[in-house]
Batch of 4 targets.
Target 1
Amino acid sequence: MTGSYAAAQGPLCEGAAVSVFLLPVSTQDYAIFLEQAADTYVVGATHSGEMTIEQARARADADLKALLPARPQTPGMLLRTITVDGDWVGHIWLGVRGSAEAKYGWVWSVYVDPQHRGQGYAELAVRLVEAEALDQFGVTEVRLNVFAANRGAIRLYERFGYAVISQVMRRTVRP
């Protein structure tokens, strides 16, 4: 398949041979992608206590519009649908950031449908999109942000080598 990245079998798939593909998000699927990416951000921002639902929704909508001016065809962005044995299971979005001398990949969003979670598909998708970013853009480092309350995602990223390089902390000061 042109423009796709595939893994024949995932390490967490209990020995079952599956075909995991990352395919470009189609124009038809772009609205679903936007909704899931925004919803994922809203959940993380509100569960962390960082924002209200309204604030998080406004920020997600503004960021998506600013970051993806050409929609799925925005240069430097890899918006991918995750499929397993031909069935949709989620999406992943990686963009290139930094300067020409110090560029890096940034994972903006990973979403796996709840019924498909815990089967290793997010890990495979991250590894596949990292490989695609290396091939297409020469990216040799990938970064991401994860809300502190999202313990499952933190464990997932730590398991395959992501390390904390900065941390935002807060404290409410009351009179």
Target 2
Amino acid sequence: MAGRLISVRRIIEVSRITPFSLGILGENPSRPRVAPLPAMNNALLASVREADGRYLSDVELRPFEQMMEAFQTRVNLYNHVRDHSKDIVLNTLRRLMQTPHRQVVQEHAQQCQRDMTYTLEYVAKGVLLHDEDGFMEEYLVWMQNIIRAFHRQTACVVAYRLLKEEVRTTLPSDQSNLMMMYLDKLTEALESGI
């Protein structure tokens, strides 16, 4: 039972993670800002509060164990993207050079690399925090401004489709699936003109 109590305490600690505690609130105005979130997994915390005066049963602990397993996948994804984002982006840009948008890459390679790197960073943070809505609100507004500034929406759509493919082939499938939810939203928004 002691192991289970430690797990519950760990879940409570994890559920209080915010962008502030992770140190990921951006200070650079040229980058999208990650908005602060309320405590994660409030439903799980509520079950702990409801068990006041007693221990949680194995059945009641199952959602906590599932959450911890899912959270570990999210942490692994975040670490993988952090460690490999440069390679993922460079491979994507190499593939983009093989398309009719070669000139865009030649003229704007540094901006493309920077923006795709930011994209991977913010998607990884969104996945880590399980915050699809915050990603859509904060990140897509930033991306809309970038696209308008460069007038390259068609090239961006192709580039981010290629980025999705690179992520799909580079990351382990469980991590890739989490990233796809966010990248699908991004490419849908780009295709519709944000």
Target 3
Amino acid sequence: MKTSHQSSMQAHIFIALGGNMGNMLHTLTMARADIVAHHGCQLLASSRLYTTAPIGGPEQGDYLNGVIQIKTSEQPMPLLQRLLEIERTYGRERLVHWGARTLDLDLIAYDDQMITSERLTLPHPRMHERLFVLEPLHDIVPHWIHPTKHLSLQAMRKKLRHQQRIELAQAQWP
């Protein structure tokens, strides 16, 4: 695994949450609580929640999406493993690529780390193609610059605005 740096200090991390099966608002709210329940993890910010059309995969219903920012000393790989365990807790099954799901948790960025491994790439390799990540991320850090693309959130969002449907679903989490 290649990393730009390793640190035992607390890192600022962005995690995208989404789902399109079951009671999505309840699932996202509970998953957010489960993420920050880990020892030493602190919730710094939550985006607004958006309804978005699915991208790719089979025909399916709309998604509810948001992004959170946390602070933790947990390293990227253990954090990824914990996110996958939380997905399974809420019934996530990986049966169909890009298929409907109860919960999807994506590690979007971990400070300014650039990681390339078989299991994890940071920043998320397709985040710049997904308005359902960029729009809520913009709610939290509007001036963020993608560390490898060297593009602003504004520029990435503008490129996708007419290609992908996104609507504000809820201004605040319950």
Target 4
Amino acid sequence: MTLVRCGWVNADPLYIAYHDAEWGVPVTDDRTLFEFLVLEGAQAGLSWYTVLKKRAHYREAFAGFEVDRVANFGARDVERLLQDPGIIRNRQKVEAAIRNARVVRQLQDEFGSFAAYLWRFVDGRPIINHWRTLADVPVNTALSDALSKDLKRRGCSFVGSTICYSFLQATGLVMDHVTSCFRHSELARGQLPDTARPQGGGDAPRAQSFTRRDDRL
């Protein structure tokens, strides 16, 4: 039996594995969340497939995406990264990754974790959408607008609303597999464990500010 997948997946086993095992799965680990924040920013103007093929090298170049280590990168690290052919050698993107790491570290101090900050935007549970076709899937929403605005206010860059929506999709805060995809039913049944739900924290917008999508088109 042939599995039906979202139409954006190509035949590369790397891409298939990413779609089947990662995309849309709720993430509560700060290192992984920061990794996606960097990679989604690197994707700007490019395809996700291009960045995905460089992902393993990004992990080496960016100290395993350990927030504290990247936040402490300096001018020499920037120049080192700009000479590294294994990543997207764009100065603005490289400097943004370092600057964003420092913001994430501040968010960890304020909310207890980067995950706690993010999951407050969806009230601690994934938004499960029911799009029939790829054409139905939005590129940004009121939720991604709000996340983008708040991250920019805190000093992040390369976090426009479209980038933020891709980030939310990748990390499972929003589940956007189309209904015909075999992963849709699997993830729609899943729940974020109570132990992973964000607790307390500082002042971040909450889900009640946004329209929760659970559309059955």
